[in-house]
Amino acid sequence: MKQRRTSSRFQQHRDGIRQGVRQHSAVDFFNVLTGPLLLELTEGHLPEHRERLYPPTVALSIFIKQSLEEDGSCQRAVNGWAAQRAVEGLRPQSVRTGAYCRARQRLPVEMVTALTRETGGLLCAQAHAAWRWRGRTVKLVDGTGVSMPDTPDNQARYPQPSSQAPGVGFPQARLVGVICLSTGAVVDAAMGPFEGKGHSEHGLVRQLLGAFSTGEVMLADALYCSYWLIAALQSTGVDVLFEQNGSRITDFRRGRRLAARDHAVSWQKPPRPHWMRREQYDGFTDELTVREVEVDGRVLVTTMLDPRKTGKRDLSELYAQRWHVELDFRNIKTTLGMEVLRCLTPQMVEKELWVNLLAYNLIRLLMAQAAVESGLQPRDLSFKHTVQMWTQWTLLHAGRRQDWQRDTLLKLIAQVRVGQRPGRLEPRARKRRPKPYPWLKVPRTLARQQIRELGYLPNAAGWPRVITHPRLPQIRTCPIRASGSSDYGVATRR
Q1: How confident is the model at residue 472, as a pLDDT?
Q2: What is the DSSP letter of 258?
Q3: 167-221: pLDDT as tens digits
Q4: Nearest of 232, 199, 200, 201 to residue 218 by alpha carbon
Q5: Alpha carbon distance 246, 261 (integer Å)
Q6: Which of 245, 267, 342, 361 could form a disulfide with 288 if both were Cys (CB 3.0 to 4.6 A apart)?
Q7: How far is residue 325's CA from residue 327's CA, in Å, rounded to a whole number?
Q8: Which of helix, strand or coil describes residue 157?
Q9: Contact, 179 vs 185, CB < 8 A?
Q10: pLDDT given for residue 51 in this prediction
């Protein structure tokens, strides 16, 4: 009897989730998450809650929608939710952000991380055979940095880099992601402080080895080319393809010659690093056989040793695909606006990061569906175009979702394709500076005090400065605060 009551409550809870999803177009995205494959996973992580204005499913959906909008403020999110309720004839609500922010805080980060990993894993596992490399799953690995508001809590958890003056820099976190090459989906990720023991890219990638399965290939740049990582992956049947690390000298006169500038060579186990326990060190093999091959002016390192199965040109073409991970991180950070996070506490920073990754995976899901319908590959389609189409589509087609409309959406997504430009180089430099202002050299509170006392900021480069003219007396310039404005103009003194 008790079991039947429990089952009945579970069914009612499930029906409640689905009914709420059908009623509110703001949670269109959550329809993906309440499909048969992910509904159980979602429900398993839902916290106990009352039917509030922002139940967990709605709060997560609006949070996802925030990450896709250029103005991702909480106020805009609440305004949109309030306007939608009003249009649908529901009771008007307050547009204050407090209730929504508290609902976001109640969301378990475990639910967001599990959904991100599950969507990424499903996309990667269900990728068409034609999308894979020689029938094998290839996963890209790379790291990047993200900054966040300069609050005491964020500084304590994610301290600013030591190269920045105290009180001037911003807290910074390091992110390492595992991305499916064929679909672009994030399979897993690890986050930690930018500096400190165990939080290097190597330290974070060691947390992600469970994202790889036997028969797969890890593709990464020279930073990841280490004895320990290769040995750990090889022991589980995972192949690697890296560029040779600059600290290692490649001598093609050694080892077993396979072809010109192509050989199999043994690497001896290095001394135990400081982060590794003795029992871990003893568990590694004493030597490692890898293949070193020079193509297109770079030396590649791989555990695919048979040149008859995997030739030099095959390796070169596969390594050229590594550039996709740079574009994927650009989409996550620039298109989705994750380069600078908005949350004020470390707990919410972590949650915000994972919500961004979940939103990214859901866009990749749409792209994969569009690729299937159009006979293309997901990598042929534009991520930014898909984001723009989805946001406009949900805005204009709220509450009118039919199958034919979804098919139309997928066809529109497939119309814009990205250019295939092999060998492209992109200098990591800015052509235009955002603002001509000098760098802040002291904490902002001290800078405000100096401006109040002196009328200018003496620590900023070039302020105050003397302007000379052959026919005019010397002019001393300094910034002054304009009346009724937070901007600073220039005052002159002869």
Answers
A1: 43
A2: E
A3: 888 999 999 999 999 999 999 999 999 876 667 899 999 999 999 999 999 999 9
A4: 232
A5: 17
A6: 267
A7: 5
A8: helix
A9: yes
A10: 56
Q: Are 176 and 143 in contact (CB under 8 A)?
A: yes
* SS3 readout for 170-236: CCEEEEEEEEECCCCCEEEEEEEECCCCCCCHHHHHHHHHHHCCCCCEEEECHHHCCHHHHHHHHCC
Cβ-based neighbour number of residue 336 at 10 Å: 23
Distance CA 124, CA 139 (A): 9
- Give the residue among 388, 291, 296 at the shortest CA–CA distance from 336: 388
Q: Given strand 472-481, what is the order of strands in its sheet?
A: 465-469, 472-481, 488-493
Return d(Cα 194, Cα 162) in angstroms, integer.
10
Beta bridge partners of 145: 174
DSSP 486: S
- pLDDT per residue over 307-319, tens digit each? 999 999 999 999 9
Report, as an integer, the average pLDDT of 413-430.
Answer: 75
CATH classification (class only), 110-331: alpha beta
Higher-scoring residue by pLDDT: 160, 419: 160
* Contact of 347 with 337, CB cutoff 8 Å: no
Residues contacting 261, CB < 8 A, separation 6+ = 252, 293, 294
Tell me the whole-structure pTM to 2 decimals: 0.82
Q: What is the pLDDT of residues 446-474, one digit of tens each?
A: 888 888 888 777 765 555 544 344 444 44
